[in-house]
Amino acid sequence: MRGLFNWKQQNPVLHVSCAGYLQNADEVQRALQLRGQRVLEPDMGAVMLAAYREWGLGFVERFVGAFAFVLWDPDQHQLVMGRDPLGLKTLYYAECAGVVAYGSRLQDVLAHHAVPRELHTAGLSELLAMGPYFSPGQAVLHGVQEVRVAHLVVHTPERVRRHRYWQLTSEPHTDRLETTVEKLRDMLTRNVTEQMNAAVPATVILSGGLDSSGLTALAAQKHPDLQTFSINTPESLDQQDVDGLDAPWVWKVAKHLGLTNREVVVGTPEVLQAQLRLDLPGQAEFDIMHYLVYKQVGETHGIALLGEGSDEMFGSQSWFYNAKFRDRASFPWVHPLLHKICTGEVEQAEEYVQERYQDALRQVPPLAGESPEQARIREVTYLTLQHYLPFLTRRVERLTEAAGIEARLPFCDPQLIHYAWNLPWELKTYGGQKKGVLREVFRSCLPDEVVNRQKSNAPVVFSSAYTTYLCAQVEAILDDPHAPLHYVLDQAKVRELLRTVHQDLFWRFRLDYLVEVNSWLRTNAIRIV
């Protein structure tokens, strides 16, 4: 979706541009028919327009799905932009000289000649200190904004209003364990069933972990001929000790359910040969690996179900269990270390991150009566859902879109996430295990050994050849005075780092991102101002 709106050349007809899907389109249409509204076309745009005529700005609260839209109302003289409650679809915009340029991708907005391709001080801090976990509403570039998750942006000639139409609220959880498990299972089963029943063939990406294994089991109940896809690396195939690997569990789950699984093996040569250009810098190696899997999926299927969102809603990310990261006064997953190898251009990076953190913390809805420890878990859960999860959903959207398929995320459902948000930590860790209550949800359809297994890291290419490639790319930036980051990096500090990066996996990931940033700046002709 992309377009331009000119305040001086207004369309006299109510119309909408949109992207994504409505999972409850039939339900909305029935509600409209009861109120005398007819939907002449079955597409999402027609449903949105009819709902807007009936309920005004409240129409967006009726929708369930992944969507972004731009709607023009000539009677109210207003341009309305909106995104779904969990940010499954993105939307950017910029207003220049009486024209609003908008699009699902950043490049859609930059295509308008009046939009400046400039990176100012705040954007540089966002890019090098927060990135790739960008702050909600931040599009990095000067003058370009992202419509925030669960928000409407209403433009009129006089002003711009932003309205949040959905948010988490804190309330005591009163359901017993058995009732909680039943409700969670019912919501997940509904989501999987609805998302598998598509007009194009659907599959599940099976990692062998609890989330994807559970989704696969639920999908197989109605689709016994389901084919799944998994990812592996040559390094994993060569390992003798397989206890901590995902691959053996993929095959155990597939065999238990009587399904066919297609394993896609991705190594350093495939990663280096792949051509992938995203609208914002990401985690190049990880992104390319999954993009190549989605390309394989696209040969036979149009939709892939993924388990994203489960770790965040049930609190199984590593920072929930490591006090060093959980309790520090910052986003647990943000490590603003890149500025330590930069010149004074980003010397305010830590202050920038702290401002973003404090702003986010003020939005956490508290629950009366919680202990300090419980309150901190609630804060970290909120930060994870509202700031880390959008990074994941944006990445999934971009990679699947580039591969020519659509993603469906059964865990990323507002009703389900709101219910899980209020689960006490004792339920999320029921039985002394991460995701304890979710394990009980899937216990009826998976073997105990799968339900009880510990989480392992996703496969990544650990080959030293890839690290050597990264070092060469960074050296090229240092040697090229025309490289966008040449004068941002401290040459001495970076060269010292390159001597030790082969033994430091964390810094290798950061250098991977640094190379992505430099390429992104150059490809999009962005100036650092």
UniProtKB/TrEMBL annotation:
Chain sites annotated for binding L-glutamine: D43
The organism's place on the tree of life at top rank: Bacteria
Catalytic activity: L-aspartate + L-glutamine + ATP + H2O = L-asparagine + L-glutamate + AMP + diphosphate + H(+)
Coiled-coil features, chain-numbered ranges: none
CDD domains on file: Asn_synthase_B_C (cd01991)
Pathways involved: Amino-acid biosynthesis; L-asparagine biosynthesis; L-asparagine from L-aspartate (L-Gln route): step 1/1
One Gene Ontology term, aspect cellular component: cytosol
Keyword ATP-binding: yes
GO molecular function, one term: ATP binding
Enzyme Commission number(s) of this protein: 6.3.5.4
Site keyed Important for beta-aspartyl-AMP intermediate formation: positions: E308
One of the protein's GO biological processes: asparagine biosynthetic process
Keyword Cell cycle attached: no
Domain called Glutamine amidotransferase type-2: residue spans: 14-110
Keywords: Amino-acid biosynthesis, Asparagine biosynthesis, ATP-binding, Nucleotide-binding
One protein family per Pfam: Asn_synthase
Enzyme class, spelled out: ligase
Domain Asparagine synthetase positions: 183-521
Positions that bind ATP: I231
Record-stated family: Belongs to the asparagine synthetase family.
Entry protein name: asparagine synthase (glutamine-hydrolyzing)
The species this protein was found in: Tumebacillus permanentifrigoris
